[in-house]
Design goal:
The structure is a single chain. This protein is an alpha+beta fold. The protein is 16% helix and 29% strand. It has helices at residues 38-41, 132-141, 146-157; strands spanning 5-10, 13-18, 27-30, 33-36, 51-54, 57-61, 69-70, 76-79, 83-86, 95-98, 111-112, 123-124. The protein has a 4-stranded mixed β-sheet, with no helix packed on it. A 3-stranded antiparallel β-sheet has the order 3-9-8, with no helix packed on it. Strand 5 (51-54) and strand 6 form a beta hairpin. The radius of gyration is 15 Å and the shape is globular. The N and C termini lie far apart (40 Å).
């Protein structure tokens, strides 16, 4: 496991935490795991832990990514499909979270959100269902999976 993180218990179960200060845009770790298809990801035993990286491509992640939790106000995000970076400075002991919606476009999986953020949306859904301003913000940060941008296109990104 990378020297800058550790796994511990959080309000949402196990989570990934910063061991040291992590600077904005710094790589936290690379997503590793078994590459699977939608049919396998939709299986009850895998679905909640998989990360979508393509239209029909998912990663059943190994640790530490298996323990990443969602946040409507994330401090990290995926770039280049599998590289998790800090979006702002992350303090030692702070839980590292990303917005699951930045990797979702499937119309299958949704979840009530328990992140506790002031701007919590209450529901985790596909990227194209996010508010227009939030979609634009995430695109500017570069943390939306390429397959989503290719599938949705410019019109879908900025539609309500």
């Amino acid at each position: 496991m990378p020297e800058k993180i550790y796994i511990d218990f959080s309000a949402l179960g196990k989570g990934v935490f910063a061991k040291v200060a992590i600077e904005p845009k710094e790589t936290i770790f690379y997503l590793t795991g078994k590459l699977i298809r939608f049919q396998d990801a939709a299986a009850a035993t895998l679905g909640e832990n998989t990360i979508q990286i393509g239209v029909d491509r998912y990663v059943d992640p190994f640790s530490p990514a298996r323990y990443l939790n969602h946040a409507c106000e994330p401090n990290a995000g995926f770039v280049d499909e599998i590289r998790l970076i800090a979006l702002r400075q992350i303090r030692p002991g702070e839980e590292i979270r990303f917005d699951y919606s930045t990797t979702m476009l499937e119309r299958y999986w949704e979840l009530d959100c328990l992140c506790g953020a002031k701007t919590c949306r209450g529901r985790i859904q596909d990227f194209d269902l996010l508010p227009v301003a939030l979609k634009a913000y995430y695109i500017r940060l570069g943390i939306v999976q390429d397959f989503i941008l290719n599938e949705v296109g410019v019109h879908g990104v900025f539609a309500a």
